[in-house]
Amino acid sequence: MDGASTQVLPVAIIGGGLAGLQAARLLHEAGIGFRIFEARDRLGGRILSTDAAGRPAEDGFDLGPSWFWPGMHPAMAAALAQLGLAAFPQHDEGDVLVERLPGRPPQRFAGYRQEPRSMRLAGGTGALVRTLAGGLPEGSIQLNSWVTRIALDGDHVRLTHVQTDGGSDSILAAQVIAALPPRLLEASIVFEPAIDPAIRLRWRDTPTWMAPHAKFVAIYDRPFWRTAGLSGMAQSAVGPMGEIHDATTASGAAALFGFLGIDADRRQAAGTALLTRACLDELVRLFGDEAGRPAATLLMDWTAEVFTATADDRHGGAHPAPQRGPWVSGAWRDRLSLAGSETSATDPGYLAGAMDAASRAAAEVLQRIAVPGRAAS
Known about the structure:
The chain is of the alpha/beta class. The protein contains 8 helices and 19 strands. The protein has helices at 18-29, 74-82, 126-134, 182-188, 197-205, 224-227, 264-287, 351-368, and strands spanning 3-14, 34-37, 49-50, 61-62, 87-89, 95-99, 107-109, 119-121, 141-142, 145-153, 156-163, 168-178, 190-192, 214-220, 230-236, 241-246, 254-260, 296-301, 336-338. The strands form 4 sheets. Strands 1, 2, 9, 10, 11, 12, 13 and 19 form an 8-stranded mixed beta sheet that branches. Strands 7-6-15-16-17-14-18 form a 7-stranded mixed beta sheet. A two-stranded antiparallel sheet has the order 3-4. Helix 4 (182-188) packs across helix 5. The longest helix is centred in the C-terminal third of the chain and has 24 residues, at 264-287. It is elongated, with a radius of gyration of 22 Å. Mean pLDDT is 93; it is low at 371-377.
């Protein structure tokens, strides 16, 4: 081991996605010290808003989650308002296209307003990540640090993390918040003592939202489908994209995006070039020749992301359902809290679920830590 620290952090947060950042925000507001350990070279986890070249951008196209629903998630809406983030409705004005059979032209139907209304953030969902991170203390975020082992060490927890240069280090913490999907937690981190088998099985059996999926984005000089009276919404039983939507940004950068309806093994076998060609061919069938001349394309396969997906995520795709019962037990019960979106009791897998689970995990930690002026529980 290249180095070991004797400093004891009040709280170590594993994962710098939305859940980790929200937990950090709540701890910071409560005056509790922390450090976020993020394995990637960027924050956001499954939130990724990029420019046409695939680089994280302040006015980006969402390659991960795009939407939230204020009518379903009022707490999420309130948090966004508190952070001063602007939202706009998903474009749904115009007709909808449906492709049912190979070789047959798509059918066109009168459009409809979706309820509850899907909303998007100006700047992409990455705007939420930037805003939360910008409110945290300098030096509290450590990128390129992959936590591989967590061990109880007396009254503390010792976390071992590996850097991208191959070096490793360890640090002591009083409390740990694991802000990553339970399935990824089970597959990527060694616990000493071992996690209770029933709890570990629960982690492994919880689907990670977005992990089995891939998104394709075609970027254009103008939203030509709108002038043709189309909403940009389409469904296809031919594919490769099963569901397509308008992805034009709040600033007017025009795009269409679709969820690929073929599994990870077939995507991997086809490769990026063939998938891109097939997606563009589909867009031409649906929206006409101009759809085949994008300014740029983006393809994000979340199954290929080692810090999102495990081997168990290559198949399936079901949305996680709310689960009852504890996520942690035994020797770890008073030292570890789970904050991944999938652990939300109300909105697992959604952005709102990440905010909810992070709030619950932060509350658990605050109950365990003696704060000046507050009695320890």
